[in-house]
């Protein structure tokens, strides 16, 4: 009987959590300095991914608690300051009307050299306190980043 009440309590606890609760938890895990460990690119229709980690060697992203982000591009020795947010989107499986929440990171930067804006909007496939994987769609393929917390 006690097991039934424990199970009922856990079901009610997890079903009552809002999406905002999970967004906040993801944001908390992101805050800090992250170094780029590996980057691959898969062109649409390609069988294999290309390892392009050398293009991002030494690059870092620092997510600050005030929703600013600093991107250090080691190739050109420049820091770009911008804003970040975690976005939750519901994806529906139309076969059985189930919905699943997926989490994305949206980042916007200003480039003072070229006086232009750029950004990243991508899916978080894994996020722990020590590493995360981030996938960004490009017009001709997908960039996949692996980050490690410093």
Describe the structure.
There is one protein chain. With 150 residues, the protein is α+β, with helices and mostly antiparallel strands. The chain has a single domain, classed as Beta Barrel (Lipocalin), CATH 2.40.128.540. The protein has helices spanning 2-16, 19-30, and strands at 32-43, 50-51, 60-63, 68-73, 78-93, 98-111, 116-127, 131-138, 141-149. An eight-stranded antiparallel barrel has the order 1-3-4-5-6-7-8-9. Strand 5 and strand 6 form a beta hairpin. It starts with a helix and ends with a strand.
Q: Which secondary-structure class do the elements indicate?
A: alpha+beta
How would you write the strand order of the largest sheet? 1-3-4-5-6-7-8-9
Helix and strand sequence: HHEEEEEEEEE
Q: Segments where pLDDT lies below 50 for 5+ residues?
A: 8-13
Helix content: 10-25%
Quaternary state of the chains: single chain
Q: What's the Cα radius of gyration?
A: 18 Å
Largest sheet: 8 strands, antiparallel, barrel
Amino- and carboxy-terminal Cα gap: 47 Å
CATH class: Mainly Beta
How much of the sequence is in beta strands? over 45%
Compute the number of structural domains. Answer: 1
**CATH level 4 superfamily:** Domain of unknown function DUF4822
Shape label: globular
Query: From the 3D coordinates, which CATH architecture would you assign?
Result: Beta Barrel
Number of helices: 2
Mean pLDDT: 87
By CATH, the topology is Lipocalin
The number of strands is 9
